[in-house]
Amino acid sequence: MESTSDTVEKRLERTPRVFVTRHLMPSVEERFGELFEVTLNRSDTPLSREELVAAMQHCDVLVPTVTDKIDADMIAAAGKDLRLIANFGAGTEHIDLKAAGRHGIMVTNTPGVFTDDTADLAMAGIIGVPRRIREGVELIRSGKWTGWTPTALLGTKLAGKVLGIVGMGRIGQAVAHRARAFGLEIAYHNRKRMPEAVERMFAARWVETLDELMAQADILTLHCPAGPDTHHMIDARRIGLMKDGACIINTARGDLVDQEALIAALESGKLAGAGLDVYPDEPNVDRRLIRHPNVMTLPHIGSATREGREDSGLKVIANIRMWADGHRPPDQVLEGLV
What we know:
Order of helices and strands: EHEHEHEHEHHEHEHEHEHEHEHEH
Strand content: 5-15%
Number of strands: 12
Strand order of the largest sheet: 8-7-6-9-10-11-12
Radius of gyration: 22 Å
Largest sheet: 7 strands, parallel
Structural class: alpha/beta
Helix content: 25-40%
Distance between the termini: 12 Å
């Protein structure tokens, strides 16, 4: 399997010129300043395409985030000194990896850093949507709550229900580990079946096709990367296979789900609710989702912990230092594994 850059560069004989596209944790930015000739975006305003290209023409290392789409034309327009794109975050679908490889530009990421943080947030949806937490909060805030009654805001018990996990990587496994404590039955679909030891660890059973998992799940949670093979993988047909009153949780990528199909299923009552941290056109969120009483709409905060964001920044620094010293960075992205 080919990497995005087949050769390790020789040691850089000068201090690397590094451009960071978004405002990072202060401790991380301070460390960048100590080690590199760094340009920081302290305003945290997303850069335009033209601003990104200009940055790529005058640096050795670009440090982008998921908000920075870097396509083949932009890579072709980069300066000759750009030899490393050290991504802040695990996902790299916003970077044209093949184009980077063709131009001899290595790509690194920061895998594993946000596993627990994202799994924790997914569990908030897995618990909160069936128990109608958003509706309860709104009732209190509106001042319309008249007191306890035996039949008010009846949700769904978690224990004994089937949690369908789509994508059994690091985050999917972390969700399975947490969900077991709530008595959920774990079923999963993955491109490849996990080893038997992993299935035993999480008391998880493999479901061979996504269609089968959709039909079995009371709660479906998505933990797979974005790409041509997963675009709108949760569409109207597959939502139609789900049990009436099921829920969908998405803390992965917005375009995994056909948003119009999701909204139609919510408005018809086919789905009881959804927990969403990602959207197809961020930062725009469809008002129909916001208005729905049992949709938890969160502003892409799956990785938003102080610890996670600091650790990710330090991983970026480690990758840059290894590259500058002429060694292969620990988190070099390999095509087919992102």
